Amino acid sequence: MAIKKLGQIQQKESKNKTSTKKYKRGWLIFGGVVVTLAVIGHASNVMEQSRLEKDNVPIVISNVDENIKLDYHTDKREISAKISGVSLLAEVKVANGKTSIHGHKNSAGDIKYEIKDIKEGDSNISISVIDGKRHGDKIIKIHRQTKADYDKQELEKALKRTEESVKKAEQKSNDENISRAKSDVNKLPEDKRGQFSERIAKLEKTKQKEKERAEKAKKEAEEKKKQEEAAAVAAKARQQQQQQQTLPQPAPRQVSPNLAAPQPAPTTPPRPRPRPATPTPAPSAELHFSSCKEARAAGYSHMRRGEPGYSPHLDRDGDGIACDKHR
Question: Is 174 helix (H, G, I), strand (E, B) or coil?
Answer without folding.
Answer: coil
